Amino acid sequence: MTRAGRMLLWEIDETAGFDTAWASVAEGQLRAEGRSCGLLPTPYWVDYRLETSDGYATRLMAVETRWEGGSASLELRRQDGRWTVGGEDRPDLADALDCDLAACPLTNTMQILRHDLHRGPGERDFLMAFIEVPSLRVVPSRQRYTHLRLMGGGGAVVGYASGSFGSDLVIDADGFVVEYPQLGRRVEPGRLPDGVRAAGPGSVRPD
User: Fold this and answer.
1) Contact between 128 and 83 (Cβ < 8 Å)
2) Among 45-49, 76-80, 83-87, 185-189, which stretch is predicted with the lowest mean pLDDT?
3) Taking Cα atoms as reference points, which of 124, 34, 103, 110 lies closest to residue 78?
4) How many whole angstroms separate alpha carbon 105 and alpha carbon 144?
5) What is the pLDDT of residue 203?
6) CB under 8 Å to 59, separation ≥6 — which residues?
7) Cα-only R_g, the chain
8) pTM of the predicted model, to two decimals?
9) Backbone angles phi and psi of 93, in degrees to 5
């Protein structure tokens, strides 16, 4: 189990679902355990476990998915600059430091923390080990992150671009996504998803 950290919960518009993780950041490393579900492109569940080495570089991403009529599992590892997928070498990922799980805002955090893009000016290009959901196929993905401006409370807006897609991400002071236009947003205490209202202490009910 991930060491004590914080629980993060996002509504994901792209998948008509949710993503949640217990995440811990300490001494240049990120550890997280998460679960997500969605209705698009097909109803699915995901369980994942992320471990990084120093500098927030991915060491392990273990993922399991389930959908109607199928399931998949993945063990993605990086050691000494060598990536393996299910134990098989992936030289096409050699220049990557990070994984990126589809529709998972948590996996935008490592590269932002490594280069302090939530704290000051900078622009960086990355090769990512992108994990498709629910198939768990791993493909190389070129991405760019650009610090755009600081916000009150220690947060920032960081531009994200991959191919023809772009979005301006709102990042909190700890480097985690708050808003991801065209993908989703974080659920905070006191703000429930649309159509749900509090029903008293310890419970919620739909309108």
Assistant:
1) no
2) 185-189
3) 110
4) 15
5) 44
6) 51, 52, 53, 77, 78, 79
7) 17
8) 0.89
9) -105, 5
Using the predicted structure, report yes or no on whether residue 197 has a pLDDT greater than 60. no
d(CA 74, CA 161): 26
- Amino acid identity, position 81: G
What six digits make up the tokens of 29? 């490393």
- Residue 16 phi/psi, 5-degree rounding, is 50, 50
> 174-195: b or e for each residue (b if 16 or more CB lie within 10 Å)?
ebbbbbbeebbbbeeeeeeeee
Q: Tell me the average pLDDT of the chain.
A: 92
Report the residue count for the chain: 207
CA–CA dist 148, 133 (Å, integer): 29
Token pair belonging to 119: 């704290």
Taking the C-alpha atoms of residue 98 and residue 96, their distance in angstroms, rounded to an integer, is 6
Q: pLDDT tens, 153-186?
A: 889 999 999 999 999 999 999 999 999 999 999 9
CB atoms within 10 A of CB 92: 13
Asked if residues 112 and 147 have their Cβ atoms less than 8 Å apart, the reply is no
Residue (of 179, 119, 193) closest to 151 by Cα position? 119
